[in-house]
């Protein structure tokens, strides 16, 4: 009897495992759909039939629609949406159901006015736009979590449900400078610093008579257009980030309690300039099982900067997660024919599994009423519908080989506090990080964005681009990484301030000067220094020489470096004398390289080429310039020609195009802006 029970449990386990694996190895094409705009059931049926005919496997719904399910306090209405979910299930279309905890309904703002945003001048703002909610407000959170409880319990076991969406664009929306926010900030500061004396030390209270004698004297770091001292700004932005993360984790915990077997996803635009927060807390928690983004590369077919920038968005949201990525929003609008398809294939090389078009139908009303979707305003499908239909057909052919699982041997450091602290620099931390990421984009190589303090740092090469804030944990992990045999590259504006945001009074780079074997004395401004240029350079132009080869580059500033054991491997050679600007130092079993300029390909490319060979880092596929490529597994390669001319791919022996049912013998050509997916024997 016991044997039979174990056998039954084993078979059930095998069934669910195989079901999970089959779900993992496929690609989804679908759309964002808004049935709350028109609850006309006959139109909804026609829309779903069109989705089915296009081969769509997924749809995202519920976006920004809290009061469609709770039109007034406590009066939940799911009946109308049950019908939509049932119809989707009947059509075989899986649903990402967004838990639209923002924006809060007007009735909630009316009940609790403290939820309203207050600007830095003290003006209370009516919620005329989305995301105008103070999510740290306790009453807001109480009702948002109640709504989460209701919708997740209601739909947890619905057969159409693929995932719950957790908020949307959490970094977007204005920061509130209300009295309520100030009171919560004070509580946060008391917990962190305990005494006013400790707070004054961290905030340099002696400067400009800004000493705090009691926590109640603390003000917010904005007075109208006047911004306060950097230390205060940094702490306030950390506080704001903590409130966002704590709330999102509460929502995730509620979802996981009510629907433990359901995937979670979000459109994680954490880096919005309005309310940039530290999404790495969520990314490393493991609770968001499918990180996601809105992929908006612009409308062009022939330019590639949009695809590159949007792909960087995937990497900076995914961090080190090994789970598939979902582009839960994807461009439609007025994108040039074939540009959507081109962008979709590019995302597959970064582990993406889903292309969910924004949006299904051109909007009839509201702020996005002129945003064009796959259907025109009268419900007639247009060319973008046809393009998504083509993608669905092609993705169905190759889906069993995806999503791609990157295997990076390079990590590049993200640092939320450094992004805030570097706001006054000519090049912020994000910009330096993207400059480094671009180096691997052009090389068709995998590379992870990492948060050093949270990472195991299992890489051959670690790049630290402009990580301005150097706390003890991060410094220790970099030190140990090099000591144990790793190679690190650090660029200018790194290790400049401690965790409070105050400039190190010790030798720079702070906490790591011995690891790099240098002393950063100061920085110089390039433009005035070019008055004494030996080459009559002007503006920000500099000549950089690496191992006898000179290239022109540009930088607003450059570091003045004193050698304390390191050797010079690169210099600025266009000024009144040679200035050491790239150094290398042996430390423990590893090597620490410092570059006294912001991250830039013209300076880093020669060094990176050498390190890739020296460290045995796996290179990308051998392809001509203008081709994106990845080796998906032992026998399969994905290519994308992102140029306007045919590209010949070098290949030995026979291969088969799974995408276009062709046979190749040796080299083959890819037409302009076209993909290819081949199997080699």
What does this structure look like?
- This protein is 33% helix and 22% strand.
- The chain has 19 helices and 30 strands.
- It has a 9-stranded mixed sheet with strand order 14-13-15-16-23-22-21-18-19.
- The radius of gyration is 27 Å and the shape is globular.
- The model is unreliable at 1-22 (pLDDT under 50).
Topology:
Elements: H1 2-24, E1 28-32, H2 41-53, E2 58-61, H3 66-69, H4 79-90, E3 94-99, H5 106-111, E4 117-118, E5 124-125, H6 138-155, E6 161-168, H7 179-193, H8 196-203, E7 222-223, E8 226-227, H9 230-258, E9 263-267, H10 280-283, E10 292-295, H11 305-318, E11 325-331, H12 339-348, E12 352-358, H13 383-398, E13 410-413, H14 416-421, H15 429-442, E14 448-450, E15 461-464, H16 472-483, E16 487-491, H17 513-516, E17 518-525, H18 526-529, E18 541-546, E19 549-554, E20 557-563, E21 567-572, E22 579-587, E23 590-595, H19 601-615, E24 627-633, E25 636-641, E26 647-649, E27 654-657, E28 662-665, E29 668-670, E30 675-680
Parallel strand pairs: 1-2, 1-12, 2-3, 3-6, 6-9, 10-11, 11-12, 13-14, 13-15, 15-16, 16-23
Antiparallel strand pairs: 4-5, 7-8, 17-20, 18-19, 18-21, 21-22, 22-23, 24-25, 25-30, 26-29, 27-28, 27-30
Helix pairs in contact: 2-4, 6-9
Q: How would you concisely characterize the structure shown here?
A:
This protein is of the alpha/beta class and 681 residues long. It has 19 helices and 30 strands. The protein is globular.
